[in-house]
From TrEMBL:
Its cofactor is Mg(2+). The gene is thiE. This is Thiamine-phosphate synthase. InterPro entries: Aldolase_TIM, ThiamineP_synth_sf, ThiamineP_synth_TenI, TMP_synthase. Keywords: Magnesium, Metal-binding, Thiamine biosynthesis, Transferase. Its EC number is 2.5.1.3. It holds the Pfam family TMP-TENI. Mg(2+) binds at residues 61, 80. Belongs to the thiamine-phosphate synthase family. Residues 12-179 form the Thiamine phosphate synthase/TenI domain. One of its GO terms (molecular function) is thiamine-phosphate diphosphorylase activity.
Length: 201
């Protein structure tokens, strides 16, 4: 499987009609602090908008709701992976991405035969408190050697200036949150990432 080299993460489906027209083809819905019914609506809305623009939707964490909604890709952190019914995810025909931060977590991820692994944080990140120090580009290169043909996503502190370095170090895709969502001009920033990563498609 090949991932698009630009992997956008949004916290609300309402971002998608603004950002998908910029050429974004791979997007994760990472919705937090919502009631179940609201989450169902968010996932359904995101799925519909992604279908309209020919983009791949990845649902973060809520694998059961994703199955119910007919989605085909889910991303799990390590804690969620430990509690998830991976056979049920696979029976539903879903692809699976898994977060990793150290060697033990990489072993755990590889044991479930994921469709990609994410390594982070590559750089310091303002999005959430991390108990892991920034991994750096050498770690990205080392992770890629270990996972081989399995797609590797670099996440954490990736901005437009750092994007090419992360991809050149071995990441197949860069995951971006704040550099787009907190930008004064999110549409233009998303478009700039799409244009920069075209060299890696």
């Amino acid at each position: 499987m090949k991932l698009d080299p630009f992997y956008l993460i949004v916290d609300r489906a309402s971002w998608l009609p603004r950002l998908l027209p910029q050429g974004v083809k791979l997007v994760q819905l990472r919705a937090k602090d919502m009631e179940t019914d609201e989450l169902r609506r968010e996932i359904a809305e995101a799925k519909a908008v992604c279908a309209r623009y020919g983009a791949q939707l990845v649902v973060n964490d809520y694998w059961q709701l994703a199955i119910d909604a007919g989605c085909d890709f889910v991303h799990l952190g390590q804690e969620d992976l430990a509690e998830a019914d991976v056979p049920a995810i696979r029976r539903a025909g879903m692809r699976l991405g898994v977060s990793t931060h150290d060697e033990a977590e990489l072993d755990t991820a590889l044991a479930v035969q994921p469709d990609y692994v994410a390594l982070g944080p590559v750089y310091p990140t303002i999005l959430k408190a991390m108990k892991w120090a920034p991994q750096g580009l050498e770690r990205v290169a080392g992770w890629k050697k270990q996972v081989g043909d399995l797609p590797l996503v670099g996440i954490g502190g990736v901005n437009l200036d750092r994007a090419r370095g992360v991809l050149d170090a071995g990441a197949d895709s860069i995951s971006v949150v704040t550099d787009v969502l907190l930008n004064p001009h999110p549409e233009a920033r998303a478009r700039a990432f799409v244009e920069l990563t075209r060299d890696y498609v």
